[in-house]
TrEMBL record:
Name of the protein in its database record: Nucleoid-associated protein GCM10007049_35160
Coiled-coil spans in chain: 4-31
Any one annotated GO CC term: bacterial nucleoid
Gene3D superfamilies found in the cross-reference section: Nucleoid-associated protein YbaB-like domain
TM region(s), chain numbering: none
UniProt-listed InterPro entries: YbaB-like_sf, YbaB/EbfC
Family the UniProt entry places it in: Belongs to the YbaB/EbfC family.
Subunit structure: Homodimer.
Superkingdom of origin: Bacteria
GO molecular function: DNA binding
Location in the cell: Cytoplasm, Nucleoid
Species in which this protein is naturally found: Echinicola pacifica
SUPFAM superfamilies: YbaB-like
Length: 111
């Protein structure tokens, strides 16, 4: 027989672990680069940009539009990279706590 109370306790326990893990994500960082490494962006697990590094050879007025495109590309890559890390961390935090229901990833409910 299905134990609803046990299930609810597991959900609360998973929520607490996820909340704790979310607080730790500020320490998680990821980098994205574009233009063969000429532009690098570093972001954290709270999806905040921490740093932008631009090769000095790009700092010419005539390269302005290209630099903007490279910054956007590098930032998007950094956010993709940190999102993957966040999903992995959340999966670890809830691993074994939620029932295995085919086709449903309950770990993403809290991410």
């Amino acid at each position: 027989m299905f134990d609803f109370m046990n299930m609810m306790n597991k959900v609360k326990e998973a929520q607490a672990k996820v909340k704790e893990k979310q607080a730790e994500l500020v320490h998680l960082t990821a980098e994205g680069e574009s233009g063969a490494g000429m532009v690098k962006v570093i972001v954290n697990g709270h999806r905040k940009m921490l740093d932008i590094q631009i090769d000095e050879s790009l700092l010419k007025p005539e390269d302005r539009d290209m630099v903007k495109d490279l910054i956007v590309a590098a930032a998007n890559k950094a956010y993709e990279n940190v999102e993957q890390q966040i999903q992995e961390e959340m999966k670890k935090a809830t691993e074994g706590m939620m029932p295995n229901i085919p086709g449903m990833d309950l770990g993403k409910m809290f991410g």
